[in-house]
Design brief:
Strands 5-4-3-8-9 form a 5-stranded mixed beta sheet. The chain has a two-stranded antiparallel sheet with strand order 1-2. Strands 6-7 form a two-stranded antiparallel sheet. α1 packs parallel to α4. It has one domain: Glutaredoxin, CATH 3.40.30. It has 4 helices and 9 strands, in the order βββαβαβαββββα.
């Protein structure tokens, strides 16, 4: 990306009952990974990869959040069942997904439907999108994002 793009601000509910406002986290870098659904194989693998590296993200001063349209109750079950260490945010109204342009028409087995395209955004200290990953392949992705955080 050559143009500086401000990250769309949001306030979303987090598992555990609190709310997170993106702009309130400045000047810390923030990683937002959007994923389709709790407790599916790819989403679980991705969330576990970010959980495994979470102490390194924290050591680099970064916040990491997973975002899907699942509600808070589903997020809490997902975190408990999969022993996840990363906070999950619920975008049940899908406004944040739309703001980040990850809510797209998809196709599986010939059927079209709307859903989240797995995407990750790294937000810098000024609230700008420093890097984005679209149509993410899970293997090695969390490591790539950590490297990008360390390079800020």
């Amino acid at each position: 990306m050559t143009d500086i793009q401000a990250a769309p601000d949001f306030t979303l509910p987090q598992d555990g009952g609190t709310a997170v406002t993106l702009s309130a986290l400045r000047p810390a870098p923030v990683v937002l990974f959007f994923y389709p659904r709790d407790n599916t194989s790819g989403c679980t693998k991705e969330a576990k990869a970010f959980t495994a590296l979470y102490p390194q993200f924290e050591a680099a001063g970064a916040h990491v959040f997973g975002i899907s349209k699942d509600d808070i109750a589903a997020h809490e079950k997902f975190r408990l069942k999969q022993e996840l260490g990363i906070p999950l945010l619920s975008d049940a109204e899908d406004t944040t997904c739309e703001d980040y342009d990850v809510w797209k028409e998809k196709s599986m087995y010939g059927k079209k439907f709307w859903g989240i395209v797995r995407s990750t955004f790294l937000i810098d200290a000024n609230g700008n999108i420093a890097r984005e990953w679209r149509k993410v392949k899970v293997d090695g992705h969390a490591e790539d994002v950590l490297d990008a955080v360390k390079a800020l």
